[in-house]
């Protein structure tokens, strides 16, 4: 698989609810193609869903930054090259990023790339992404914490590199 562009950032977010009208972003993990990383946990007063209370909140251990500070750090990390945001099932990650930074204030290309759709188009079951595909590609998923935004972005990058044959 030859990608259209190498100007990409692997991206994942964790948030309080699947309902973007009620939810707020809790954490952001970004990994550049070269492996450079940024991880932020955000101050948040939104009420988390029961699933988030059980599965996400206990994993948040870092210092919290304000939404404004998170926006500044993401913008600085991403730079001005307007990279494509690559996320697994990007609809939620993109929406929560736009809520955080504004539709015109985020530093990414306006077209977010959905990795699940790439897998689907290659006749790979997107739901097998972590359990089967990563293992078939020789990736040790035991070193990653599921539903940690940075680890999710890391494993996405690792799978992408294997599928594209990039070093």
From TrEMBL:
Single GO MF descriptor: nucleic acid binding
SUPFAM superfamilies xrefs: Ribonuclease H-like
A Pfam entry, by short name: RNase_T
Location of the Exonuclease domain: 7-167
Top-level division of the source organism's lineage: Bacteria
InterPro entries: Ribonucl_H, RNaseH-like_sf, RNaseH_sf
Protein name according to UniProt: Exonuclease domain-containing protein
